[in-house]
Specification:
The protein has 97 residues and is mainly α. Helix content is 97%, strand content 0%. The longest helix is centred in the middle third of the chain and has 94 residues. It is rod-shaped, with a radius of gyration of 41 Å. The mean pLDDT is 89.
Length: 97
């Protein structure tokens, strides 16, 4: 083998080693990115579950508020009706005099 061929082979080997090194670095980086992606997916899933739980809780609180308002309206209406009945009774009592 001539000296020029030996230099070409050595250069080729050096470049192949460099490519192998870069390939290993890319594999490590890819594995790191895959782990990061997996972690983010888990985080996203847990946040989605939290959102669903909070929506259910919000709907329950909203329903409780609506029921509370309706009970307050009912109590207010009952008081107004009692007041009207007392007024009518008083008017009837005045008419009977």
């Amino acid at each position: 083998m001539t000296e020029e061929q030996s230099k070409l082979v050595a250069n080729f080997e050096a470049r192949v080693r460099q490519l192998m090194f870069l390939c290993d670095e890319l594999r490590q980086k890819n594995a790191l990115l895959e782990r990061s992606l997996s972690d983010e997916r888990e985080n996203s899933q847990s946040l989605e579950e939290e959102i669903k739980r909070l929506k259910i809780k919000y709907d329950s609180l909203k329903m409780a508020r609506i029921i509370s308002v309706r009970q307050d309206d009912f109590i207010g209406a009952k008081k107004r009706l009692s007041k009207l009945v007392r007024e009518v009774d008083r008017c009837i009592a005045l008419l009977n005099e």
